[in-house]
Every structure is written in structure tokens, then in C-alpha cells.
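Pinned message: reference record for MipA/OmpV family protein
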Amino acid sequence: MVSRARPFRRRALAGAAAVAACIPGPGVEAADLSAPAPAPTFVVAPPPTWIVTLSGNLQGLPQYPGAKDYTAVVYPGVDIRRADQPKRFSAPDDGFSLALYDSPYFRAGPTARVVPGRYYGDNRKALFGFRDAMWAVEPGAFVEFWPIPVLRARAELRHGVHGHHGLVGSVAVDYVQPIDRFVLSIGPRFNFGDSSFAQRYFGVQPYEAALNGFVTPFRPESYTTVGGLAALTYTFDAQWAVTGYASYNRIVGASADSPLVRGRFGTPDQFVFGTRIDYSFSMPALF
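Predicted structure (C-alpha cells):
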């Protein structure tokens, strides 16, 4: 009996020791059962985004500067801003612009305009004997100032390439009033050009006067207009908007005495009527 009980007792003690070895003590539990350290996380900033607005413009305007007869033109437009920038007011007669500096009160950057030309085919009777004044591109710079949220002052200074090589500019002031989905704007306009621009579009060379037979030679030293513009924009949603507008500018000063303005086929009173449709979408910034 004694010899048989001893092996059994030894086996029981060995089993108990094995079970005790599997149960961790207090210190072991704190070390072995603690949660693993979280893996480091990295926050990736979203890529910068642009809001691009494409515009289609339909205008009724004089056939050429100073003309009495009108024609219709269609041309595109584009505006680009960062997604974190609010949509800013843009008048229909603003040049194509990119704001390199943009704050709530001040904006500045490059701009450009396209000036329609004057061609013999526009009015064969009035322009017989005149050389064509080619269409021109006018790159330059603009500045905008918002002294209060509803008042904008804008100035552009540009230099012609291709069609003319004169220095031209414009000054505009707009009262801008949002009304629900509408935005009403109205304000005065002032445009000017140097002698190179004025002589290109309003001057008459002696040989042109001789060939035409109804005009006399004329050499203006400057170009100036005064007038105003009114526009009404309706925004359908974040993508679509439509604008209707009308402007009036009167040619004054030296160019107002041109035979192309005072003659049988011209007038100093220049009207423009138009409609603009805007479509906006987002895209990754290219730089």
C-alpha cells in the first residue's frame, strides 16, 4: 500500500505544479496582458483643389469702335480660384483675370482682353479705302479694392499686341447687392487709350481720305469714353448661373471728332447688350 501511494502522490504534486506554472502572478499579469502600443498614424493632407468656372458669352455690340451698326459675337471665358476661397463678384466687362494676391479687401494679378477689329467687310460703304484694324490682345494687370462689402473699385492697365501697340486702361466702380439668389450690380465706367491706340482705330490717313472721298484726314492724340454698366445674375445652384447685362459708353475727347465717329456711319454712343452662362466644377490644383 505504501509503495503504491507514493507514485500517485508524486504524480499529483507534479500536475499541481504544472497548473500553477500556467497561472501568472500579479506582476506577470501586468506585464503580459497589457494592450500593445498603437501603431503610429500619419495624417495626409488632402490635395489642393481649384474651382474652375467656364463661361459662354453672347453679346450684341457695335461692329467696330465708333460704329453705328451692330453685330453679335460669342466668346468663352474662364475663372479659377482655390476651393477655400469664396466666390468673388466679377462684372461682365472685366478682363480675363487671375488673382495672384487675394484678400477680403484687395486683389491683384494679371489680366487680358480681346479687342474686336475693324474690317472692310463690316461696312463696305463707310470703310471703302480704309486699311483694316486687326483684332488685338491686350495683356496687363488689374487691382481691385473693396472698401465695404457692397462696393468694388477696379482698375486695369494693359498694352496691346498683334492688332495695336498702344497703352490702354479702364476704371470701374460697382455697387454690388445680393438679393436671395440674385446679385444686382451697377456702376460707372471710364476707359482711356494713348495716341497709338486712338490713331489705329479712329485716325484717318491722307490716302484713306482720298480713296474714301467722304472723310478728311484726322489724327487723334487720345481715346476716352465715359459710361456705365448694369448686370443681374441668378444662381441656380453651386454649378450653374446666368447673367444679363447692358452697358453704355460715350466716346469723348479727341477721338469723338473722328470722321469714323461723327460721319454718316458712326456715332459716339456705344451700347453693349449681353448674356453670360457660367458652369463651375472642382479639379485638383495643377500647382
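Pinned by admin. Summary line: The domain at 49-284 is CATH 2.40.160 (Porin).
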